[in-house]
Write a structure and sequence with these properties.
This protein has 287 residues and is of the alpha/beta class. The protein has one domain (8-151, 169-198, 255-285): Vaccinia Virus protein VP39 (Rossmann fold, 3-Layer(aba) Sandwich), CATH 3.40.50. It contains eleven helices and nine strands. It has helices at 8-18, 22-25, 27-38, 59-67, 80-88, 126-136, 154-161, 175-185, 204-213, 230-240, 281-285; strands spanning 49-53, 72-77, 94-98, 111-117, 137-148, 188-201, 249-261, 269-271, 274-276. Strands 3-2-1-4-5-7-6 form a seven-stranded mixed sheet, with helices on both faces. Strands 8-9 form a two-stranded antiparallel ribbon. Helix 6 (126-136) crosses helix 8. It is globular, with a radius of gyration of 20 Å. The two termini are 39 Å apart.
């Protein structure tokens, strides 16, 4: 996948800055979270350990704790400020953990369920992320996630392209590419699907305000680092006008959903050096 290179430090700083007011702007995030949680009806196990990757202010972590009352739920995010919001409503079975999803500080084969709502699009290396997910998951454990797809904010992207050639809106991974990555890492029974949602705003400024308030503004490595000039902003707003309908300005989102299961012991993983099979010592002793 060839996507917009992202500035990891800028991503973390962005979410740190908006953490205190994030929930007031995260309307779409909560709707997708609800739709993703509904898919847990296919999960028939009673997990001991659930990991919520990219938990934000902990909304899904709290719901997962209520859904699986006997489970320990790890609310994991790389924004310390977001996790401060989690601790304000922490339950006895929910544990905040500040960490990068590319290098999870969790034991191998420890998680029964890995849940992630709208976090994967902030990765430059989904292969590494999926390797980490597989490493911490028990055989048969479930992975359930959502992320933005390539048609997300298409109107805004086109409007900015009419003004300059700088990256203003990130590219997002394609559903089929994500499925291929899951297969390459060795996940079993991957199921991918997507839907398109459209939000409407009274003006483009309201859209920009919501993106900024939810931490979803421009974090491309090659972005312009100065303030956006007034003429550029006005040009972008004028280029957005053809999308306006009945006084409302649409913003399209492609939402990709994925589910897969961790493979049995010894299932090979495809690497540049060839296929590598890994066994726990306990699995070998039981043979």
């Amino acid at each position: 996948m060839s996507l917009t290179p992202l500035d990891k430090s800028a991503i973390r700083q962005s979410f740190d800055r908006v953490a205190a007011g994030y929930d007031a702007y995260a309307v779409l995030e909560r709707e997708i979270e609800s739709r993703l949680l509904e898919r847990l009806e296919y999960f028939q196990q009673e997990p001991s350990l659930v990991v919520d990757i990219g938990c934000g202010t902990g909304s899904a972590s709290r719901l997962l704790s209520s859904l699986f009352e006997s489970a320990n739920v790890i609310a994991l995010d790389w924004s310390a400020a977001m996790l401060e919001q989690v601790t304000k409503t922490e339950t006895e079975s929910s544990w905040p953990l500040c960490a990068d999803m590319h290098a999870l500080p969790l034991a191998a084969r420890s998680a029964d369920l890995v849940f992630s709502n709208l976090a994967l699009q902030w990765s430059n290396d989904l292969t590494m992320v999926f390797h980490e997910f597989r490493r911490i998951m028990k055989p048969g454990a479930m992975l359930l996630f959502s992320c933005y797809g390539p048609d997300t904010l298409n109107e805004l992207k086109q409007a900015w392209q009419a003004v300059d050639e700088q990256p203003h809106v990130s590219d997002f991974p394609d559903m089929h590419d994500i499925g291929d990555e899951l297969m390459a890492v060795g996940f079993c029974e991957p199921v991918m699907d997507a839907e398109r949602l459209t939000l409407e705003y009274p003006d483009v400024v309201a859209l920009m305000r919501e993106l900024k308030g939810s931490g979803s503004h421009n974090v491309a490595t090659q972005r312009f680092r100065g303030l956006t000039g007034k003429s550029h902003m006005q040009g972008m707003q004028q280029a957005y006008e053809p999308f306006q309908q009945n006084g409302r300005y649409p913003a399209s989102y492609e939402i990709v959903y994925g589910a897969a299961f961790a493979p049995a012991e010894g299932q090979p993983v495809r690497t540049p050096e060839g296929e590598v099979a890994t066994f726990s010592i306990d699995a070998l002793r039981s043979r």
